[in-house]
């Protein structure tokens, strides 16, 4: 599904140099590379503050802690996403309010957000799933109307541009109250271990997130709030500093792969290709098909026999997971999400796929489904 070795070989000298510099200085925690990467990412995103942390899940948790959300507060997010998005809501004693998504873009259903707002609602967490932004202009209008925070889950969409109705653009994660991302190795901007970050344009909120991420202290041994220990280590920052310079290049390569898939599958009645909206460009963290009248399990097995990996993101909706079972949700409540979970299939998507490999993948799939 990803070729990290092939990608590394192309930037080996830069990465090795950066790692060696960390080893030479032995500044493994909060070393210069962390601050340099932070500044580089702020410039790339055109955002005032980037706060690095240990992973994307921590980023979401720290964001909610810094916003002062309290047990019982309701947070709206999509049922069609990775568990981390809702997991931190539950861990903090908040109430996850799950809603459906749109069948074409996989993004959170805006009308469903409005229907589920109550006096207890405090935040919305839109997920920019698979590499394309949710409709942030409408989400921000709802948030303003109801005085809600917006925490963007940008784990799969770093580098994507949202396009407002007046033509202005903003990077995913810089529109809401806080943006949260992951630098897991398979992400579009991935390190060689775990890593994450939060973004905001709010000075006070940035201070709070830094405090929370550092044991609740702004001055050593003075703890003003309860916090956590969540740091991006210096070696990972050195890797990310190199890879950030190539992020747009990586997105362009992923789009070429997506273009090949789109063209190959455009006329197949058995395969629905991803919809690209006019409100966002797509950075294709995943290329996800919807199958029509195809035995997904059998297709995956047949592809595996021919050396082609395929993944299911995500086989079980959050509202049907044991961890989130509640009287508030039942099977059938979110028909779009449930249908997607039963029919989606993601294909290899990375920067090292060449034309010959892509032709083999698409030819094989078409032979198997037709």
Number of helices: 12
Which structural category fits the helices and strands?
alpha/beta
- Number of domains in the coordinates? 2
CATH first level of the largest domain: which class?
Answer: Alpha Beta
Spatial shape: globular
CATH superfamily of the largest domain: Type I PLP-dependent aspartate aminotransferase-like (Major domain)
* Mean pLDDT across all amino acids: 97
* First-to-last CA distance: 23 Å
Quaternary structure of the protein: single chain
* Percent strand: 15-25%
**Secondary-structure arrangement, i.e. CATH architecture of the largest domain:** 3-Layer(aba) Sandwich
Bin the helical content: 25-40%
Contiguous low-pLDDT stretches (5 residues minimum) are none
Q: What is the CATH topology descriptor of the largest domain?
A: Aspartate Aminotransferase, domain 2
Order of helices and strands: HHEHEHEHEHEEEEEHEEHHEEHHEH
Strand order of the largest sheet: 1-9-8-5-4-2-3
Give a short account of the largest sheet: 7 strands, mixed
Topology of this protein?
Elements: H1 4-25, H2 32-45, E1 49-53, H3 56-66, E2 74-78, H4 84-91, E3 95-99, H5 110-115, E4 121-125, H6 136-146, E5 149-153, E6 161-163, E7 169-171, E8 178-182, E9 196-200, H7 203-213, E10 217-219, E11 222-223, H8 234-244, H9 247-265, E12 271-272, E13 287-291, H10 296-305, H11 335-343, E14 344-347, H12 355-369
Parallel strand pairs: 2-3, 2-4, 4-5, 5-8
Antiparallel strand pairs: 1-9, 6-7, 8-9, 10-11, 12-13, 13-14
Helix pairs in contact: 1-8, 2-8, 3-4, 3-7, 9-12
